[in-house]
Amino acid sequence: MKVKVKSKNYLSWLIAFGFSLTANISLSLNHPATATNHLNSVCSAQSLENLTPQLLHDLPSYANRATQRARRRSRSSAIYSYMLVAGKPEFVPLPLNTEGQKSTTAGVEQVFFTTLERQYIGGKALESQQFHWALFTESNTGWRLVMMFTQIGGYPQEQVTSPPRDSSNGVVAQAIKTWLRDCRADSVRISHKI
Q1: CB within 8 Å of 70: residues ≥ 6 apart
Q2: Domain edges within the chain
Q3: Pseudo-torsion of CA 157, 14, 111, 4, nearest 10°?
Q4: What is the mean pLDDT of residues 98-125?
């Protein structure tokens, strides 16, 4: 089954946020996890643009496993969604600081992508799109996720139904962090055909 995920005009992110992310990003960049020894992994030798298609190809399985782990821990009757597919990435960055502020975001790369998710409620399958804005930085051992923001929209209509929220600790962000960890450990097979 081929599912087409629509791309979104990400300039609306800038309008929706209306504030500078510079301070939050600089705090994340100073995290001790970025100061580790260099390893000769495939992950550390690739540009973010080369790694992202493989990451998005693998992301549904990583996200669905993260969802299952969360369900086992909470044992609640909450409704969980399942990721079906992650869309083609966009790399055109948005400005991260407002006029007159010194930029402290050097080394931060931005990726925009869309995911299609499904929830089962009362025996019915409901699908939605999530629009993600992920910020990455490169450490001595490879790429790291700095922070992420997400909006939810309808499917098949592209109408956004939620304001942007910080999803840096959400299931998709956890899935990205796990994939990057596996990539740094050379546990991910990088295919240049994707």
Answers
A1: 80, 171
A2: 11-184
A3: 10
A4: 77
Which SS3 state, helix, strand or coil, does residue 127 take? Answer: strand
Query: What is the distance between the alpha carbons of residues 106 and 76, in angstroms, rounded to a whole number?
Result: 42
Count CB neighbours of 167 within 10 A.
Answer: 19
The whole-number average pLDDT for the span 186-193 is: 69
Angle at 123 between CA 119 and CA 126, to 5 degrees: 30
Confidence of residue 42 (pLDDT cuts 50, 70, 90): low
Burial 100-137 (b: 16+ CB within 10 A, else e): eeeebbeebbbbbbbbbbeeeeeeeeeebbbbbbbbbb
Is the entire prediction scored with pTM above 0.85?
Answer: no
Check residue 68 and give its pLDDT: 86
